[in-house]
Amino acid sequence: MTSADALSYGIAFAVAAAITFITTSIVRRMAIRVGAVVGPEERRVHTVPTPTLGGAAMFVAFVVAMAVSSQLSGFDNVFRGSSEPLAVVLGATVIFAVGLIDDVREVSAPAKVAGMVLAGGVLSLLGVTMFYFRIPFSDRDFVSLSPDLAPLVGIIWVAGMANAINLIDGLDGLAAGIVAIAAGAFFLYTTRLSNGILPQDSIGPLVAAVTCGLCVGFLPHNFHPAKIFMGDGGALMLGLLMASSTMVVGGRVDDQFSGQTYFFFAPLVIPLVILGLPILDTVFAVVRRATRHAKLTEADKEHLHHRLMRMGHGQRRSVLILWAWTAVLSGIVLYPTYTSRGNAVVPTAVAIMGVALYTVLRPGARRARLVAVGDVDRKAGPGAA
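The chain above was modelled as a monomer; its predicted structure follows.
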């Protein structure tokens, strides 16, 4: 990467961060004025009414950052004669609109999925799609996707990433911090591909840099105690941006490069490793509520952030723990990229990290439940039925 390229990416990042930071204060006041405020609920950890719609500030900043980038000479190859920038902007607009509507008035799950499919379809129609799909830990390094299969894989990728980011948006600053780290790490990875491997007109590095800037600009308003939430509009949009960036980088490069097989999945694997327990929590919640003959939408306090809180971690410490986990995982996957060795270490190290997280959290959850049961028994008294 030349110094001119680095300057262009730095400007795109700075514009995204600055506009998000400034606009979030305005959006917060507007959200309070229109009543877009989330009150304390059984399934939420915040204790005071908090305005949402923070994703609107991120969306405005994203559009401005892309507009500014289109005027920079360093991105002439990206914007000239390509429909991909328009695809990402339109896709982000669609999925943000779906999330925004859900923030204002609840949208059914099928309707939200339909919105994600539409956003993924827009990306595919305008050229943001995978050519190859990598298969880690297999003899076949990658498979070429047919024109019929590529749009389906892209839509699934968008929906999966959007839901993953939305799922981790449960504590102040958690989703924004994890996406900032993942996007920043992915941008660092793309700089290693810029020497003849990654096409000069790839929009992937720019989207990663802008996405990182959006999150960095939003975090001062969202870190505990949060002044505003990003809402589904922000979370779904961040998921689409991460999906777009990874599709046009990992899904387009078929040359062998150290760390490539792993890092193509890293922006998804990093959150998903962190999300491993929340995802299991969701599955267990469905089973738990089904066995109790309760509604699937009925809230409880058995999710990951509740367990971390019961272990004695406050919101800030819980978020910092998961940020640190994400950063370490990013470092593990970046290591072979920058050293050209150590590929075989990556799956083992990631597995060890996952087991360590499980080992740390599960005993705490069991102890908390035992304490809770003991408290109930003591309150009930020896003569209770």
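The beta strands are 37-38, 50-51, 132-134, 142-144.
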